[in-house]
Amino acid sequence: MVLRADQWQAHLRQGHLSPVYLLAGEEPLQLQEAADGLRAVAREQGHSERTVLTVDAGFDWGQLHAAGANLSLFGERRLLELRMPGGKPGQTGARVLADWCKSPPDDTVLLVLCGRLEAAQRRAAWFRAIDRAGQVLQVWPLPLSQLQAWVRRRMQTTELQPAAGAVELLAERSEGNLLAASQEIEKLRLLHGAGPITVQDVGDAVADSARHDVFGLAEAAFSGQPARLLRIARHLRAEAAEPVLALWALAAGVRAAAAIRIGQAPREALQQNRVFGDLGRAVERGARRHSGARWEQLLSRAATVDRVIKGASSGRGWGEPWNELINFGLAISGSSVVQEEA
Fold it and tell me: Out of 50, 202, 232, 329, which residue is the most buried by the measure of CB atoms under 10 Å away?
């Protein structure tokens, strides 16, 4: 059965999972959150064992066949994720998927994740087999009218109360990109806390050109570039950028790096912590710079920096927010350089 995005949550609330799911589309935030919702329901229903397979040029489809034939090691229910970015399983993969759907294992939910599917792919036998055996969710970019409703719900969910015009401006500035809109809403929540948000608040936050440098600062830290980090930090400081935004970017990267270092798949760790683009690539490369224990220490240090920014602690960088942030970034980079007090 093909579901619309607005039917997804109602389906999950029913509590009865289908044996097979296909989530496809070109809107990454909606896909990520739809998959997260399914994973949560699966855990609640006892699918505590999770296996992830990624289809690439050398993928052995026998792995999926074997996963279906083998019983769970501990007799537990399983969630098996098959990530197929291109949406083209080939002849062998199409046959394996169709065979799976004819007789899906009782103890396993299969989740197939892929990008946008063209019309020919949606007519393929493997797609029709999943449609008959389970559920298909296709996610499309939202038109502006629906985007405004989505932005309003998102702001209200994060305890923001947008004034007239604030939702429309944010939807327009994010240019239909739900991920960008979500990040701007998080930023507004960080800057203003719960409560009313004016058009001016949205305009000031979204139009702030320094926001790009905030991610550049974090990228420099995770790329091990202390000189560049210091240069960007001086610029942000001179422009009176909000320290909380710089900490937001750094801390998200640290959480993702810690997860990668202890064994989580990089793509999953980055998506869960909403670390994307150049910063995501820098975090993935830089995760091995420190041990898992060291990343956990840095995560605790992020909490200290947060308290300094809020005036609740003197920290270890003379109690001045930008000094704390700079030293935190240098620690992430692995540099022995210590920023001196200006």
Answer: 329
